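PROTOCOL LOG
Step 1. Enter all chains and additional molecules of the complex.
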Amino acid sequence: MTRLLAYNAIIVATAISLLGAVLLPVAIRRGRRDWLTLGYAAVYTNFVLVTVATLALVWGLVTHDFSISYVAQVGSRATPLFFTVISLWGALEGSIVFWAWVLALYGAAAVYFNRGREGHLVPYAAVTLLLVSLFFHVLLLGPANPFQPVFPVPFDGPGPNPLLQNHILMAVHPPLLYLGYVGFTVPFAFAVGAMLSGEVASDDWIRLGRRWTVASWGFLTAAIVAGMWWSYEVLGWGGYWAWDPVENASFIPWLTATAYLHSVMVQERRGMLKLWNLNLMVGTFVLTILGTFLTRSGIISSVHAFTTGTIGYYFLAFIGIVLVAALFMVAGNSDRLASEGRLDAPLSRETAFLVQNLLFTAFMFTVLIGTLFPLVAEAARGVKVSVGEPFFNKMSLPLMVALLFLMGVGPALPWRKAAGEELKGRLLPGIVLGVLFAIGVVAAGGRGAYSVLAFLFAGFALGTNLQEFVRGANARVKAHGESFVMALVRLVAANRRRYGGYTAHIGVIMVAVGIAASSTFKTEQEATLTPGQTMTVAGHTLRFKNAWGRQEKQREVIGATMEWMDGDRVRAQIEPRMNYYPTQQEPVPTPDVRSTLRGDIYLSLMAFKADGSNVTVKVIWEPLVPWIWIGGMVVCLGAIVGAWPGGRERGRAVATPAAPALAEGQP
Amino acid sequence: MNWKRATIAAASAAPVIGLFAWGLTRDPNNIPSPLPGRAAPQFALQVFAPGQAALSRPVGDTVRLADLRGKVVVLNFWASWCLACRDEHAALSDVAATYAGQPVQFLGVLYNDVPDKGSAWIAEMGGQTYPSVDDPGARTAIDYGLYGVPETFFLDATGRVAYKHTGPVTPAVVRFKVDSLMAAAAAPAAPAGAPSGDTAAASKGGAR
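Step 2. Run joint prediction.
Step 3. Record the structure below.
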């Protein structure tokens, strides 16, 4: 019953997406407003139908309806309700359902908020959104159908992958990732709409898509950080990033999107880089699809393997169509995208953005090539190679350090041309802070050139970005006689985009400091202890109290209680565990982490004697790692400030006639 | 609209799409084993499941690879917790029986498992015609570079690894490999068991 409802909803949604995508161009050609409305209705109906299918699948999971193939695959009666609900995105088919739902939601919202806009940009964007939706519906009816009948109906199922039911972040990371990844479809659709409607020479597609881009970027950033956090808390290796193809797949479009967020300001301010920005936006979307293809098709070996079938060929066809169509449209429109302005001086904000864009693009290609290299090498020379961390670390360190530096210089540089004296005053706080950071890291024993440079530039960037807040607020204190705090709040509220950006910068600096510190000063040690014995790592003493075991609903747990000592006082109890799931041959190690602002004590249980007489534990001192998570949240805060509705749009947007539609049209 | 430029740009997508299309025909997890063509790692392991009739060896007996020189050896790594091993069990067991009395030794090696469970599994599967040995600490499995179970190694009469098969085997595969190795041993002029790489026709079925 539930199965048929969901399956038929997808069939009807497929038909309606197709109808809408055909109807809208006809409506545009014939100038029929009523058909246009009908086409938009298709977008909304698609959303309703996919919502029905998604809820039906969740209902099937919750009621243990094992006659639905997806439920039989990932469900089990022993799994707690919470993990049952989130197993919606725990395996391939369910994740495609969820993807289709997020896409339909975005599509409906994007069309709804811009439905009143004159011109053909929004109708063509709606066509784009419907066509992308159509692709995911085809997946659901074909290679990733979660609604197949199962007969005879099994009494119970194997349950979701234990790794995915081991931590609360599994509830957070995938939805954020989809919200980010899928969200770029909206600004991409506006870009396509601009190209098809002939409005590409104006900046309208950028303005219509701006908040969607910032929001998607914020979600993607949060997703990446949450993924790092999950990996850190769950996998027991004490790291948070391994340059696995799936991690790279999320990072590659993030790089182009970040480049776009910056370079688009040059277009709005100076009318430059129009073709470049169009390329970045289209590229970001293509890269999200490419990333999905790489991770779902099994074309590249990864620890995040989804089981694969024929889905790779569907994705290949889709990526082929998207790539050919995108290149065709962008190149075909390139004549209309001549620059209006030119660079006035080498020392200006435009130049900083330009260099920043070059670095981000280089970074993107580095990660992309590293990820695809095994495939290329096998095609060209017939050899199996793997590209691992050393390559990526070596290539990305100089880029990251240079980007940190630019993040410090950029905000201090004015548009067009910088004057020497003023510049000095704006850079000074950063220079002071940077030198302090560098001295600090050398005093703490850091010796590598890159780690000293990373801290130097992190301090520098922190100084100049903070200085922007202080300078702006001080000006308001002088002008309006407000208190400093009030001035700061009003400053940010009045210039959300700008100060949202600076806030994000500060978050990124925190992340960078966390990464630099933990990779420079991480200390790890393994020891076998009997009860009462202690070990010391980086000045932190840990005492083994006892080992224990207990039976939980869906698993057996073996754990060790360790005491983090402060002299004779017990500062905290830390309990690394091993979880045994009946459907899994090997235990799932579950580290335990105690966080302080100075760093984390990270404990993994490696082995234990069955009688509890001794345990082997790995202890890692991870300095400043919590700042990565805090920084990630600060970046998101910046994205929220930057994307918040209302607020004054800076630059040329204010003067154009499209502005009223924008004010009405944004979420 | 600049049609010429648009067409050129669109055509530039072809190599990328071609690369991906080619990539889809490959299995990135299928990493060729360096073992075929080399001397098989030695082992001395104890029988825990005797096998049946002519093929049987007493429980507790130590099987040494060195003693099997002159015979074609089929070494099958398996475990009671391995689902794909169930698929190939009948194929191996039945084919082994047809080679009774010939210079071929089939041998099961228990991987990451305990003999009691292994014996129970054999009983559940309706018996196994050839003997199985225990591999405590998976030392032999490590020597053979085992990636998962089931994996089957075909050793020629001179004690070299001739083929490695990842995933469940089929009767046809076993017969073909064993027959060609026996033919090579019978024709002394030809280099015995010329390395022919590995096969992984059904690698996706294996437990990792």
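Step 4. Note key features.
Chain A touches chain B at residues 293, 297-301, 312-313, 316, 319-320, 323-325, 327-335, 372, 374-376, 378-379, 384, 585 (CB under 8 Å).
Chain A has 20 helices and ten strands.
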